[in-house]
Amino acid sequence: QVQLVQSGGGLVQTGGSLRLSCAASITIFSFNAVGWYRQAPGKQRELVALFTNGDSTNYAYSVKGRFTISRDNAKNTVYLQMNSLKPEDTAVYYCNGRLGKFDYFGQGTQVTVSS
9: phi > 0 → left, psi -120 to 50 → alpha, else beta; which? Predict the structure, then answer.
């Protein structure tokens, strides 16, 4: 069974930094794509950052230059380093792994950026 367990997140002031972690129960190379989505209140879930096709990365325009996705293959863990945080980054962040036609999500982590 595929499990994604998240850690990190919390409350930070504008301009601050946070790091999210996502530990997978399988080798992350098994996933076709792995990374992060977020959902703000009243909005649809949106892509934040994703590894696809191996080492290729895809970032939402709104986070480019501020967020960095990385991974530790030995630990089967994906990270999201978030710098220069803004109030509009406030959302529940979800780790995502795509395996074939199935999408798996972590439990979600609240990130709140105060102004």
Answer: left
